[in-house]
Amino acid sequence: MTTKQTSDVIDVPADFAGIPKLDDQICFALYSASGLMTKLYRPLLEPLGLTYPQYLAMMALWEQAPRTVGGLGEALGLDSATLTPLLKRLEAGGFLTRRRDAADERRVLLELTAKGQALREPAKGVAVQILCQFPRLSAAELDGLHHILAKLIAGLRETDVEAPAD
Amino acid sequence: MTTKQTSDVIDVPADFAGIPKLDDQICFALYSASGLMTKLYRPLLEPLGLTYPQYLAMMALWEQAPRTVGGLGEALGLDSATLTPLLKRLEAGGFLTRRRDAADERRVLLELTAKGQALREPAKGVAVQILCQFPRLSAAELDGLHHILAKLIAGLRETDVEAPAD
DNA sequence: TCCATTTAAATCGTGCACGATTATTTAGTA
DNA sequence: TACTAAATAATCGTGCACGATTTAAATGGA
Questions:
Q1: Which of A43, A100, A137, B64 could form a disulfide with A141 if both were Cys (CB 3.0 to 4.6 A apart)?
Q2: Which residue has the higher pLDDT, B4 or B124?
Q3: Is the pLDDT score of A3 beyond 90?
Q4: B126: closest CA among A16, A78, A150?
Q5: Sign of CA dihedral A126, A84, A32, B36
Q6: CB contact under 8 A, A127 and B23
Q7: Pairwise CA distance, residues A24 & A26, whole Å
Q8: Are A104 and A97 in contact (CB under 8 A)?
């Protein structure tokens, strides 16, 4: 509390100087919610042998396969530095295969194995259980949350693409 | 392939079986938004010598110090396995000190150094710049987002505390 | 007093995440 | 054809995150 009026320390409208934490709390809320969500998934995904990021990768491949590492990375917002080791673990687990594209040896094609395909059904159960365990937010609230997040993400992606050329 | 009507594979209402991705997209949206947000902070925090989690720790200490590692962990939702190395880096950077509490040698007290205190003002500038770079969401939307996230987090924390005794 | 229990941090092992760099292949062009 | 430039993954180094375990200190009885 007791945030004083140090309105001349930085050259911004006094309105902002007095509330230096509110925006951070939205960021912190996103950070916290994301972490807690991952924790919620952990015990459900563990029996399947997946972590949450691995589950995301599998979902992307259930939607479309084969895909390249780059294509998957674009879908998930991750780069090869993160994906390559993750995909190697999924390959070691027998969920997918990685092979160079014969038509373009720079690309690596990801393909699901039978085991990877088979995981799709139990994964649906996970999604349902998450829904059930979900804190009591109304469908309208969930919808609103999803809608605003989509807008936020679109804006953040723009900034992420344009600003680095600063 | 070709997801058929296997409505008896899992014992849930058929309504859910058909929409196995919607809830995940909220989770994925949280995950993505959180990551993009951290990326937005990075170039602003780098000149200060902080990462985003370190910035969160400093914010908690600007609000209240001295604090114990456990107290900080409760505020941030992190445990000592994450905090101990992070705090050692902040100590190595000269931002804070760690010392055993003489009254209870189990506890470690965190105290800001002059350098750590001094960082508070430029950190306010970071918060302002984040607000400015922020994608065009109305104040009402930001408010709504924050409100729903708070509700979500409260529910997730409950689940996180109660469910593990399963 | 002594000892089991609880509490608090630190440590260990695994896995994610990213900026920066490197290696290889393809494409474009003089 | 040769030679640069662009594209694609992989690699490297640093730092976060968490479950599980370990170490040490405080607490609460018999």
A1: A137
A2: B124
A3: no
A4: A16
A5: negative
A6: yes
A7: 5
A8: no
Beta carbon of B81 within 7 Å of strand C?
Answer: yes
Give CA angle at B81 (B67, B58), nearest 5°.
40
Res. A14: pLDDT tops 70: no
Angle in degrees, CA A126, B30, B39, rounded to 5:
135
Q: What is the mean pLDDT of residues A50-75?
A: 96
| Assigned CATH for B50-119 | 1.10.10.10
Q: Is the dihedral of CA B54, B149, A153, A134 positive or negative?
A: positive
Angle formed by the axes of helices A22-45 and A120-133, nearest 10°:
130
| Interfacial A residues in 133-162 facing B (CB < 8 Å) | 133-137, 141-142, 144-146, 148-160
Q: Is the CB of B28 under 7 A from strand C?
A: no
Residue A130 pLDDT > 50: yes
Which residues, including other chains, have CB under 8 Å from residue B134's CB and lie 6 or more apart? A23, A155, B142
Which residue reads 């039978």 in tokens?
Answer: A114
Q: Is residue A61 within 8 Å of A106, Cβ to Cβ?
A: no
Tally of residues, chain B? 166
pLDDT at A30: 96
Contact A10, B121 (CB under 8 A): yes
**Domains in chain A: boundaries:** 19-147
Class of the A19-147 domain? mainly alpha
Cα(A155)–Cα(A134) distance, rounded to whole angstroms? 27
H/E/C letters for each residue in B82-124? HHHHHHHHHHHCCCEEEEEECCEEEEEEEEECHHHHHCHHHHH
Taking the Cβ of residue A14 and every Cβ of chain B, the question of whether any pair is shorter than 8 Å is answered with no
Tell me how far apart the alpha carbons of residues A124 and B77 are, in angstroms, rounded to a whole number.
Answer: 29
Q: Is the CB of A161 under 7 A from strand C?
A: no
* CB-CB contact of A130 with A41 (8 Å): yes
